[in-house]
User: Fold this.
Amino acid sequence: MTMQTVLSDIGSINDKYVMFNRFTEDSDPGDSKFLFSAKDNLTSKDFETCCGSRILEGYHPVFDATAIAKMRNAGGKLIGKTNMDEFGFGTFSANSGFGIPRNPFDLERACGGSSGGSACAAAVIEDHVSLGVSTGGSICCPASFCGVYGIAPTYGRVSRYGLIDYGNSLDKIGLLSAKASDLTRYLPVISGRDERDPTSCVQPELEIKGDRIRSVAVPKEAAEGLSKDVSEAFLNSLETLKGMGIDVEYVDMPALKYAMPAYYVLATSEASTNLARYVGMRYGHQDGDLSLKFDDYFTYFRSKYFGDEAKRRILLGTYTRMAGFRDRYYAKALKVRMYVIDAYKQILKDHDAVLAPTMPFVAPRFDDISKMTPVESYKADYLTVPANLAGTPHLSVPCGYNADGMPIGMQFVADHWNEDRLLTMANEWDKAFDVRKAEVSL
Amino acid sequence: MKIGLEVHVQLPTKSKMFCSCPTTDAEGPNMHVCPTCLGMPGSRPVLNKKVLEYGIMLAKMLGCSVADTAWFSRKTYFYPDMSKSVQITQYDNPIGVKGMYYLNGKKPIRITRIHLEEDPGKTKRVGDLSSLIDYNRSGIPLAEIVTEPDLKTPAEAREFLGELIQDIRHIIDLPGDGERSIRCDCNISVGVERCEVKNVTGLKNVERALTFEVIRQTKILKAGGKIDRETRRFDEQRGVTISVRKKEFEADYGYIDEPDLGIYHIKAMAESIKIKESPLKRTMRLSSEYGLNEKAAKQLVATSMDLADLFERVAKATDVQIAKTWVAGAVSANWKAFEANDKADEDGIVDIISKFADGKITDTECNLELKAYMTGKDTESLKGAAADLDAVISEYLDKNPAIVEDYRKNEKAANRVIGFVMKQTGGAYSSADVVTAATRLLKERL
Amino acid sequence: MDREIVERVARAAHISLTEEELAKYSQDLTDILDYFKILDEAPDFEGFGVNPIEVADVVREDEPKMEFDPDELLKDMNTYDGYVRGPRLS
Assistant:
């Protein structure tokens, strides 16, 4: 597809796949060098930015997120804002307050989440890169379900200025694309110190020297609870890696089982404070009855416009930091994070990366998702969460397809600041493995 | 009766705590605002370095232990003036703890802690029962100083605040109406249970609010009732405190660390910051170390800290008596002119006084030389002017010999001479000069 | 999780719940917290971190500047005479 074609077809593409909440009306790419999209939690001046939530309907930011600005400066044209789980709360983008993106390999199945729309755009639109955001796995999960490459860099590598917060110590902006080389091309564009985001100001420079992964550690704990098709594809991939001259070793990683609860405690604690500002004043919906007392006025908006999962996580996160519970949950989770980081560092002393399947199953059907309990959907993240908790960079590559043709992915985790290794891996893997494209018909 | 204060002091930075919006008074509401202080989704805080410096200075002034590492916390509470429903403050790691403040240089008031936090915006009640918010103040840096309940009366609380502000002003340059830029939460218990009066602005109102509480609480206890532990607010116009809600439990604030800012290693900064001695401390020290009476010490310090420095320097170079006579005397009298004179410095003054101390010049010569040096006028014209003044005084004494006799009985008689001469010479001489000359000439005639 | 606690939490979070929602969320939170129990067993780790990588000493100079036009910032807000309109205070 040429840029022109994409722009003229974008409406019908979106009708079928629902990847965008808002998209451009422009038919002419002008002198843009490439097209890109961005998850709708990144502020954009020229598109309403809703973060997947009805409470932010009508929010027109006055500033572009740094990542978007940088892509624009590099010659990119932002063509749309992609659908996502409300505020990032979800694994299937099914918690979107707007459209729910459909898996390009099977429209009855989910794209994953919370950057589902971005993965969909990357899989459907040729030559397309999308900015996604990962808090607990929201880049690699949809990348895996949609059969594309996804990279979540080290926490602090990409400026979060303009990112509407879910968890400030967990959010990372990254990339999704069907082309492995796009990751190498665009990561340097969006990375770098930004004085508007202090957490981006301590990074060493991103050096791309072709550093390789020569050995991987596979945690035994990660091999449990997988569906058969994932297990099979993963084991085959391990053979491929060995054929590429990469050493594969199974290791014990007992710290992994604590990562999930620690992650949810920290993420929801932070999220509940980040979402406190949505009270029907200043941005988003503001049309309430001002004669109500402020407590009631705020409660009215929050109860009306927050979705079910948002409410659940706000309640959970408010509880975990309340006096009397704070030590057991919030304070403990902070310590457990340090413990998990240490566990990774120990293993990464002797191996270049930790490797496991990205998700324990292929993209589920929408009606199966609606039957899942909250705990069941949280547990689906158990493979992506640990690296996210640790802030370590991680990469998902398509590594197989099940009998229905649904994509399966595997995830490499490198040490802090070692994106170079992951980028090289993506490129090398791309030569060794036949990545299938989704059939797109409009 | 126990009174404790939580004093909020606006720090006089040029830009806000977490964004670069100016802190000066704006022309209208919501003019010094940006995405950060408006809490817009996607915005992010960046700490103003000056806030840490001021925080450390105040912590040291209060004799607190300064933390080696500083970080910030999020305090969540909902109110229209809170642009993100979260106040970035310091919860479990205040910048300074366990200090002590000496009221009047003597009475110890324990300082529990001092921490840094941002101010919310300002609300206005409107006739139709809604509100209007101005976020110009949102994000202005504050230091919160918390005392133990060591204050005993409303008057004492006011006195404490007055001294505290003076000391703070001395080291960090508070704006002129500093008195109004102080807000206090006042905790007071007449009996066992305490009440908090939140957000009282200015010293006078603190005393009024506390006084009202004393009366209110005493009344209840006398009638055999119980004080409800609660939060109240002060109505400035009516001079009464009004119940707002039951005291909030810390539970509802749900403190967590603020990850957007990270941590700050401030040990080196803290060690390098030296704060100037406060005027009160200097006054007390001049009295005790040099035997200078309190009034004279206060006078020196009030004129200028540099003058007080000079006093100590001369005392050490010569002796205390000479410093008392000359620095508190002629040097002090000519200080204003000296400050305006680029060509004169403290070294010159010390040299002249040292010459007198060594017996190289007489006291009259010393007086003249000091004056000439400090004002920049030449000695000849000064001598001439001095002689003219002597002539005016002598002429008056010649015409009114009775005054000399009056003076023998009561020194205050000199005032008539001084008054006349001042009027006669129409301000050509400083009062200090006239007093010195008149006193000398009167004494000569005794 | 205790119904009373959920009510208290909901009040603190400014979310109103119907009877049905209260029951549902109480159950959800009970299940989730049950799953979180494993945290209690996690080993005690010495170490303090506000972020997963150490973010330290990032400050800015005290220089005032206005980067955005206030009118732009307020354009989508409910305002009156330059003030932002808000609900009743008490």
Notes: Chain A touches chain B through 47 residues (CB under 8 Å). The domain at 3-255+336-432 of chain A is CATH 3.90.1300.10 (Amidase signature (AS) enzymes). The longest helix of chain A spans residues 327-350.
